[in-house]
Amino acid sequence: MAVNGGNRTARAAKAWALIIGCAGGAPVAAEHVCRAVRAAVGVDGAALSLSTGMDSQSLVYATDEVARRVAELHFSLGEGPAVEAWTFGGASLAPDLDSATASARWPWFAPAAVQAGACAVFAFPLQAGAIRLGTLDLYQAKPGPLSAEQLADALTFAAASLGVMLHAAHPAAGPPEDVRPFDAMEEPRAEVYQAIGMIAVQLGVGLAEAFVRLRAHAFAEGVGVDQIARLVVGRNLRFDPDDPAGTPGAHAEPDL
Amino acid sequence: MAREQLLARVFVELADTLVADFDVIEFLHLLTERCVQVLQVDAAGLLLTDQADRLQLVAASSEQSRLLELLQLQADQGPCLDCYATGTQVAVADLAAEAVRWPVFAEAAHERGFAAVHAMPMRLRDQVIGALNLFSAAPGGLDADSAALGQAFADVATIGLLGERAAREQALLSQQLQIALNTRVLIEQAKGMLAERGSESVDEAFTAMRANARATNRKLTDVAHAVINGEVLLPHLARTGRGARRPPD
């Protein structure tokens, strides 16, 4: 039983252990996250999709045929929990697609998903502020809501998915081995997000790439992202656009 | 102004914010500012659950980094976390006496000049979705009337944040909480970009965006998006706003 506010690190560490176990020594990829989340949350299937707009989506991985079909229905019909999650930036939970409420909300998607074998679909945006990459979608063959514990796990895996997909989308900004259980240590602190904004301006890149650069640098230095963020916000560290490795050009003496 | 008059004005203002083109961060920021005025405390902040075991900062009466840090600390320890965990108000009239209970928090609060703190739960039926924090420079804490009023502010924050449908439906509750917290992240990213472009410090950037939102009749979140997309905020608008930020007497 989770104690309020106390178990995040343990939960994230458990999630990453499972993901890394699924990867079996290979660099962590979408496939491993999907298989791990299915096992941890105890759902029938999971899929990761990338979105750059309403009409530009692609399936990265699905654990099974039903999960794949659910993703395709979202793309072709342009509605459903995943579309909602991506559009509004919050989890979209549909515990019973075979209900009047669901068919009023998604007249095409709801019956089609039920027919495809998914009576419950839960979609989570992969996001950090203005960065929104896609969604993590879970399904159940039978209707029923997620428990608070399942929801907490699903949200933890969505955060992990963001890390994995960020690196996949910007391979030049940080090698795939940098994808590691960072999130277990990452505090969702204001400074980290301010630093991402500052680095984006310093390098003339988007926020997503700036996030990857920040993480890659923290990894290279062997410290937490929040420590590097503090240096950036305190103007003791700048990222240099002329350095192809994306590492900061001017190292200040870390005044931690 | 008598407290009743001030209170009437504040609730009319908050209701207006809810009815008009609603911006969740603007609403919660205004609410924390008005808590400071009406309850005569020195700072206020709101933390929400991310539904994965952690409280996250969503709004504060001042965007000074020092205050934001203190609020964020309470994800790990402090009266806010205890209030969230128990669903009841936590009143600490003298933080100096609580150094054993919350060593890190008590010291950080003391460093920032706060001696007393009060935490009010944001309740929804049998759940707690976050907490409102009130800080005072002088020890002693709130009287019973102010504490009741503080709880009313916390309840208004809950209903304003969730809206009628999300307050009713569990699935939408989750969505609204995430949207609010992610909007906060978006604001921080925009603050960083604005500061780096040279026009503001990180601490000032929020004020500049808020002033610009008012001057251009846009939502705060839309201004933050515009900053992220490269818009340059006109400095004279920011200056006007900074002057106008002073709370009404």
UniProtKB/TrEMBL annotation, chain A:
Residue intervals of the ANTAR domain? 172-233
MF terms from GO for this chain are: RNA binding
Q: What are the boundaries of the signal sequence?
A: none
As recorded in UniProt, coiled-coil segments are none
Pfam families the record matches: ANTAR (PF03861)
SUPFAM superfamilies to which the protein is assigned, alphabetical? GAF domain-like
> What protein am I looking at?
GAF domain-containing protein
TrEMBL record, chain B:
Q: Does the keyword Transcription regulation apply?
A: yes
Q: Start and end of every ANTAR domain?
A: 167-228
Tell me which domain of life the UniProt entry assigns to the organism this sequence originates from. Answer: Bacteria
* UniProt key word Metal-binding: no
Q: Which Gene3D superfamilies match?
A: 3.30.450.40, Winged helix-like DNA-binding domain superfamily/Winged helix DNA-binding domain
Q: Which molecular function GO terms apply here?
A: kinase activity; RNA binding
Stored InterPro entries: ANTAR (IPR005561), CheY-like_superfamily (IPR011006), GAF (IPR003018), GAF-like_dom_sf (IPR029016), GAF_ANTAR (IPR012074), WH-like_DNA-bd_sf (IPR036388)
SUPFAM superfamilies reported in the protein's UniProt record = CheY-like, GAF domain-like
> What are the record keywords, sorted?
Kinase, Transcription, Transcription regulation, Transferase
Q: Which SMART domains match?
A: ANTAR
Protein name in the entry: Transcriptional regulator
